[in-house]
Design a protein that fits this description.
elongated; 327 residues; Ferritin
């Protein structure tokens, strides 16, 4: 519900000047080169071919950085603005290498392909916005170079784990489905199911009036759904991140947030307080287990971790509501 604060202070991609786009490209190339160097160092002993690929990719990122700096110097002078990908809406933060390495070499290759895919989209979008001919030309060339990196990273993965074209297409479609619908919907369901527990059950135990509790639950659920939906739309336009239409993601987030809250608000249409409360508590447990199931199935979160995070968190919020309302 309060996640809108996270996107405050970030710039819209369309608001960047040509100088700022060059500065963002320079800092991104520097970061990616360091990540590839770390991957190469880690893989060198057991996967020397893949390590050499990452060495070459890191060297090429460094060359791209030099080209960008030279063009910036020519067009705008020596002072490069400090702007990084975390300052712009829609950019994925790069995962630190210590979070990727434990998942194995295949995950490293997939992460590299995702990095290059995002870089390619950035350069293509920046080239379309650039009015200066020399800036547009360089950004277009870099977009093509990053597209070549995607192929190199995916080819290395296929060499170690062959897949049919059909399987690759299904994997791509599944990934897009998860990014556009499952991930935003899951965030909404978690927020709606958990954040509304305290106000609904606090009202229930404070008033023991089912109609009042129902009205508070509906207000909290709808309000949270609107807030989360607009936050998702405003936080990422999907141009660079590749997460798909912001409207679709916003609808998925808003609807699932509302559904998550209404699940344990609707039982209070039942006039008898204890019958309504017992049913609401049962629905809460179903909601929390459903969230854990989705995390495990689509986000590949281990069952134990998913249950611990969701069930324990929900139980704490529920207990807080009961204590506040009962006091």
């Amino acid at each position: 519900m309060f996640s809108s604060f996270l996107s405050r202070g970030r710039r819209d991609f369309d608001s960047l000047s040509e100088q700022e786009m060059l500065a963002l490209a320079i800092s991104s190339e520097e970061d990616d080169a360091r990540i590839y160097q770390a991957y190469a160092q880690w893989l060198r002993a057991d996967f020397p071919d893949t390590a050499r690929m990452f060495d070459a990719m890191a060297a090429e990122e460094g060359q791209h950085r030099d080209w960008l700096i030279e063009l910036h110097r020519e067009k705008f002078g020596e002072a490069i603005p400090l702007i990084r990908r975390e300052h712009v809406k829609g950019f994925y933060d790069r995962k630190p290498d210590w979070l990727v390495k434990p998942k194995g070499v295949d995950e490293v290759r997939r992460q590299a392909a995702a990095m290059e895919e995002q870089a390619c989209r950035f350069y293509a979008a920046a080239a379309r916005r650039a009015s200066d001919a020399s800036i547009r030309k360089l950004l277009g060339e870099l977009a093509r170079a990053e597209a070549g990196h995607i192929g190199a990273a995916m080819e290395a993965e296929r060499a170690h784990a062959p897949r049919s074209v059909q399987e690759a297409e299904r994997a791509t479609e599944h990934r897009q489905f998860v990014l556009t619908y499952v991930q935003p919907g899951l965030a909404g369901l978690m927020d709606g199911s958990v954040s509304t527990l305290a106000p609904i059950f606090a009202t229930a135990f404070a008033t023991q009036n089912t109609w009042t509790t129902f009205l508070v639950g509906v207000a909290a659920s709808v309000g949270a759904g609107i807030s989360m939906g607009f936050t998702e739309v405003a936080s990422d336009d999907g141009v660079i991140s590749g997460r798909g239409s912001p409207i679709r993601r916003g609808l998925a987030t808003g609807i699932m947030t509302t559904v998550g809250g209404l699940g344990h608000a609707l039982p209070y249409l039942i006039p008898d307080f204890w019958t309504a409360t017992s049913l609401a508590i049962a629905i809460v447990f179903v909601e929390l287990w459903a969230i854990a199931f989705i995390q495990n199935k689509y986000m590949e979160t281990p069952w134990g971790k998913a249950i611990f995070q969701v069930v324990l968190g929900g139980a704490l919020v529920f207990a807080a509501g009961v204590l506040i309302g009962g006091g």
